[in-house]
Design brief:
By secondary structure, the protein is an alpha/beta fold. The chain is 46% helix and 12% strand. The strands form 3 sheets. It has a 6-stranded parallel beta sheet. It has a 6-stranded parallel beta sheet with strand order 11-10-9-12-13-14, sandwiched between helices. Helix 2 runs antiparallel to helix 6 and helix 7 packs across helix 12.
């Protein structure tokens, strides 16, 4: 993303600056004085400074200063402020080499330092610069599930986690030349649809429909209607290679870091982004006549959704154009209409029935007047279940949350984007603390995080930067540390005394909800807030809900 911003400053690759306001705000934060500079000049300097943060060896990462002062002072006291993004990765790899660091608490402190370099470094930089390049999201309507694929149109599915190429594919698919070429091949149009986090990125900026989350990538191909699936990195099943052989579908890899034997590779380089996007769209169009109508079976499954909520636009949908503020949110928590807020994020796990834990936990918290923010595969799970519609407030939310959603016109579950966009949760917490009335540090807020179906290594890093930021973080299954009672006790109990956050491991989503609610109520009591206005009469049973 940083490289794409640099190319935008040079007028190369097809990239442009689509949010100049955020560009200027970030430039000031990075210590760049505008002084009459053009947007392209600011973009160049910002790209250089952001790039430096990955390799810097001394000092502190700039963006940690966004956190409350009390939190930054604690990180410094503990010696876990990241010095540079890549440096911390190298150091944690060295410490875990045979014969180096064998003090588990010392290793885990460096693990937290590395995780903070992700959440308050690489992830935050990526989200901010994607907003500059591809425009900051605004609430947008779209649809989700396998039914978004069309029999009479070219279906091109983007899958992975790097939106730089996908942005160019979407742009190319809408060019008149491509649409004309599709018509000549007998198609009525071109559907670009997404899977996993690329889907979330395209959804929140362009309204591109979502085919599904991690465990639906094979099902998308089994419809027989996908003309081309293009993948980059992360969460791409190697078994796709054998599956496409049963259909006409072309599978194309694009990253030099993620190739598959026997699969066609179109290597992506940022400086040729728009040309590569056009080539991939042309390949999909050319393959459309090879589709076998007898193998096409698209389920009649499609749900409406509203996506694209961010830290910045929350000001406006809460307070309006002239009274933009987080005050209504803070007041709702203070007076007890909202019990608190929880970020539910993360993967699907093949060991769990798809989406069950996400949806069960979400519904249980909603009816207890807990506002949910969601990203990644968890967001897609909620969307398929209809929880990203404003109407869901009347179907699933408790009376306090329902009242707020009705007044503001928002869903009870707010879609904030892809896995990388979990940093939007951190910046939202910054605004809640800054607004006042709920303490002066994240650890005092009645909030929590959860990854009910986690399975990826990145979930551990995300979980640890949430814990290190002072937030209770639930994982549906434990980290693979149960062989060490000391490590298990440290990350689920003792670490709270150090950083104010800890892990909660609980596979049953109903029991997990109970643990999270207990935590929210304890934080409310510590802040001497009024008890929640409403209490449900009964709890859900540990059975699949809405799947």
């Amino acid at each position: 993303v940083v490289q794409a911003l640099r190319l935008a400053s040079e007028g190369r690759g097809g990239f442009t600056i689509q949010d100049p306001f955020k560009l200027k705000r970030l430039a000031l934060e990075f210590g760049i004085k505008p002084d009459g500079k053009s947007n392209t000049e600011l973009a160049r300097e910002l790209a250089d400074r952001a790039s430096y943060m990955f390799g810097q060896q001394e000092g502190e990462l700039l963006l940690i200063n966004r956190a409350p002062k009390k939190r930054v002072e604690l990180w410094r006291k503990l010696g876990i402020v990241p010095r540079g993004i890549d440096r911390e990765v190298v150091e944690v790899m060295h410490r875990t080499t045979m014969g180096v660091d064998n003090d588990y608490q010392n290793i885990l402190r460096q693990g937290m330092r590395t995780a903070l370099a992700d959440g308050w470094g690489g992830s935050m930089i990526a989200t901010d610069l994607q907003d500059v390049l591809f425009r900051s999201p605004k609430p947008i309507r779209s649809s989700v599930n396998l039914g978004v694929l069309k029999r009479d149109q070219i279906n091109l599915v983007v899958h992975g986690h790097e939106p730089v190429l996908s942005e160019m594919i979407v742009a190319a698919s809408r060019e008149p030349e491509m649409l004309k070429l599709a018509n000549e091949k007998g198609a009525k149009g071109i559907v670009v649809a997404g899977i996993c986090c690329t889907a979330n990125e395209m959804l929140m900026r362009h309204g591109v429909p979502v085919v599904g989350n991690f465990l639906q990538q094979e099902l998308a191909l089994v419809t027989g209607a996908v003309d081309l699936m293009v993948v980059d990195v992360q969460c791409v099943m190697p078994g796709l290679r054998s599956l496409v052989g049963c259909f006409h579908t072309q599978l194309v890899t694009t990253s030099p870091k993620a190739r598959m034997p026997g699969v066609e590779h179109v290597e992506f380089h940022e400086e040729h982004a728009i040309e590569t996007g056009r080539e991939i769209v042309r390949r999909a169009i050319a393959n459309f006549p090879n589709r076998d109508p007898g193998k096409v079976n698209i389920p009649d499954a499609e749900s409406d959704l509203v996506a694209g909520f961010t830290t910045e636009n929350t000001f406006h949908f809460l307070g309006g154009r002239y009274r933009a503020s987080y005050r209504p949110l803070n007041d709702a928590i203070i007076d007890g209409r909202l019990r608190g807020a929880v970020g539910i994020v993360g993967c699907n796990n093949p060991n769990i029935m798809q989406d069950w834990a996400h949806i069960t936990l979400t519904k249980e918290l909603l009816r207890n007047d807990v506002l949910i923010v969601t990203s990644g595969c968890a967001a897609i799970a909620d969307a398929k279940c209809g929880l990203l519609r404003p109407e869901a407030a009347f179907e699933s939310a408790g009376p306090g949350l329902r009242e707020i959603c009705e007044a503001v016109g928002i869903p009870p579950v707010l879609h904030i984007g892809a896995c990388v966009d979990n940093s939007r949760i951190l910046t939202t917490l910054i605004e809640i603390v800054s607004e006042g009335g709920l303490g002066d540090d994240f650890s005092q807020l009645p909030v929590a995080g959860s990854a009910p179906e986690w399975m990826s290594e990145k979930a551990v890093a995300i979980g640890f930067y949430c814990v290190a930021s002072g937030v209770l973080t639930h994982f549906g299954t434990p980290h693979p540390v149960m062989g060490s009672p000391a490590v298990h006790q440290f990350i689920t109990e003792e670490v709270e005394k150090l950083v104010g956050g800890k892990f909660l491991f609980e596979p049953d989503p109903v029991k997990a909800a109970a643990g999270i609610i207990e935590h929210l109520d304890r934080k409310r009591a510590e802040l001497k807030l009024a008890p929640p206005m409403y209490t449900p009469n009964k709890v859900l049973q540990g059975v699949p809900v809405g799947v």
